[in-house]
Amino acid sequence: MTFLDELHAALGAAMSTDATVLSTLTADKSGHDSHSIPLALVTARSIDDVQATLRLATQFGVGVVPRGAGTGLAGGAIASAGQIVLSTLAMNRILEISAADELAVVEPGILNGELNAVLAGHGLWFTPDPASWAISTVGGNIATNAGGLLCAKYGVTRESVLALKVVLADGRLLSLGHRSVKGVTGLDLTALMIGSEGTLGVIVEATVRLRPVPSAPVATVGAWFDDVLTAAAACAAITAAGIRPAALELMDAAALAAIDAYLGEHLSERGNTFLLLQTDGAASAGEATAALTIIRSAGGDAELTADPAEGERLFSIRRAFHPALEAQGTVLIEDVAVPRSALPQIFAEIARIGERYGISIPTVAHAGDGNLHPNFVYMPEADGSVPPTIWTAAGELFAAAIRLGGTLTGEHGVGLLKRAWLRDELGDDQFELQRQVKAVFDPLGLMNPGKVY
Ligand SMILES: Cc1cc2nc3c(=O)[nH]c(=O)nc-3n(C[C@H](O)[C@H](O)[C@H](O)COP(=O)(O)OP(=O)(O)OC[C@H]3O[C@@H](n4cnc5c(N)ncnc54)[C@H](O)[C@@H]3O)c2cc1C
Q: Which atom from ligand 1 is nearest to the alpha carbon of 204?
């Protein structure tokens, strides 16, 4: 029997070769499309389904692309001809919620927002909050080590994972980590899986750490500055003062202008750079007041509110960023990170690169953790791809971030789109070591071929 015959015999209706279905698997939300149709889609409903699929893939030497909701921005879940896609989207049950241990055991396909909606009823919260929380899976969040607005205070996904079940390319099922908060037995293979972008195995179950929903009150500060470098310096001063905002978001002049155009507002008239800060919990009022003092002494025109509706009004400016950019055209959303003290320097680099290439690079920064999303708005090539000049400009951005002690990706991952720069950041020795580590898990190179390494 052929591979597809065997797969069908083992998986039945969970396996599809429908051309319309397969054509949706050549892209994710990065804007990249392989235009290369894979062999089949397996929609796994159980760990057994995943094991059966991977055993056959190993037997026939077929590459496997794990896929959650396909919201990735690095091309990690994009499939190509000769490969199969293994979707964990239908493995979406909550298996356990333990208030006593502040943990939940979930299947990988549950959406982050669905999990949190259920947890809210228990007064609990899974803190990783990518802006895609409503549409991305917990498995995808773990595979990309996703972060969000609140991770400066509450940590990235890595801080919220206690244990994982993972199926290796040859079908073996591993149980990694512990239900206990602490645990240092042997190498931390749980941590190795987090952010591995489907290159080491398929995550089939996760024991995630929960927190109590933060107590009110919440205080929100909106501030306008006349230039982004001063605002970036104010952000660095806020974190250096030991203040831990739940969110600290910075939008530069090009970003605010796009938001103005999108919302029909005139926000830029108050100052061309917008800073949003939110504090929560018992210390919230004191932290917000201390931040306000720093912002004003740096020259910011700032307002502080404890009123939820007013706070929401200020937050809606930040939320308008992505739709405002999408309204301008096709966007390459970049994702560098630098030490927080280097925020002014990286904004200066962005301005320099924009001038050099004659392009506008609207940028929003999670300033609380030094992660920036410079957005390159471009006219696609005839085949829909990103023009080479844009990649050259992005390459200069990556080099600047690395030079400043940062990284070419803070939360989106390497996937397909940043492979060319991986060695620059890791160096030859670490790059080779990482490839050797992958080979231990996946000696035939079948897990997410062509991604990351
Ligand atoms: C509007 C928008 C906003 C976004 N905002 C953010 C943000 O603020 N922060 C952020 O970090 N990201 C953000 N993203 C990117 C994306 O949503 C995240 O990377 C998310 O974690 C991907 O989850 P997913 O379920 O869509 O995974 P997919 O896109 O399906 O897959 C992503 C990667 O994970 C692997 N993978 C998926 N499931 C598994 C599994 N079960 N086992 C092993 N590997 C697996 C895939 O192979 C792929 O490499 C955003 C995306 C959009 C469209």
A: 41
Residue 438, ligand 1, Cβ within 6 A: no
Task: Identify the three-state secondary structure at position 216.
Answer: coil
Measured from the CB, is residue 44 less than 6 Å from ligand 1?
A: no
Average pLDDT over residues 358-379: 94
Decide whether any atom of ligand 1 lies within 6 Å of the 202 Cβ: yes
- Nearest C-alpha neighbor of 220 from the set 291, 296, 269: 291
pTM for the model stands at: 0.96
Sequence length of the chain is 453
Atom 19 in ligand 1: which residue has the minimum CA distance? 72
CA of 12 from ligand 1 middle (Å) equals: 27
Going along the chain from its start, the domains and CATH numbers come out as 3-87 (3.30.43.10), 94-212 (3.30.465.10), 219-403 (3.40.462.10)
Render pLDDT for 75-105 as a digit per residue (tens, 0 to 9).
999 999 999 999 999 999 999 999 999 999 9
Residue type, 192: L
Does 196 sit in the ligand 1 pocket, CB within 6 Å? Answer: no
242: left (phi over 0), alpha (psi -120 to 50) or beta: left
C-beta 406 within 6 A of ligand 1: no
Task: Tell me, using a 6 A CB cutoff, whether residue 146 lines ligand 1.
Answer: yes
The values of phi and psi at residue 124, to 5°, are: -120, 165
With contact defined as beta carbons under 8 Å apart, do 291 and 279 qualify?
yes
Q: For 109-123, write each residue's pLDDT tens digit.
A: 999 999 999 999 999
The values of phi and psi at residue 87, to 5°, are -90, 135
